[in-house]
Design goal:
The chain has 101 residues and is of the alpha+beta class. It contains three helices and four strands. The strands form two sheets. It has a two-stranded antiparallel ribbon with strand order 1-2. Helix 1 packs parallel to helix 2.
Length: 101
């Protein structure tokens, strides 16, 4: 097996792909965690594709470790957080504005 050792670069908000990448990554993580041992995991998204992964090793915590997400987006961040996350870290300036939106 060959490992990819190139650094990963997270898309910026300016590229418009950051939340798409976040959603795909969260779907893959939770999907692999919830795939029963002995079965394979497949995923085909807009930016990422996985075929026939054994989805191993499994996390010790069930159904998986807590997911903590950070972000300031007014639409996508709350939707992703509601679907996947246990806690959201919002920048202080955004947290103070939340009541006004």
């Amino acid at each position: 097996m060959r490992l990819n050792t190139r650094p990963k670069v997270w898309p910026s908000r300016r590229s418009g792909n950051a939340s798409t990448c976040s959603k795909g990554t969260l779907e893959i993580m939770t999907g692999m965690w919830n795939t029963p041992i002995g079965e394979t995991f497949d995923y085909s998204g807009r930016m990422l594709t996985i075929k026939s992964s054994p989805a191993l090793p499994k996390p010790a915590q069930r159904p998986g470790p807590p997911i903590i997400m950070g972000g300031a987006g007014p639409r996508r961040t709350p939707r992703l957080a509601a679907r996947f996350c246990h806690r959201v870290q919002r920048p202080v300036h955004v947290a103070g504005e939340m009541g006004r939106k």
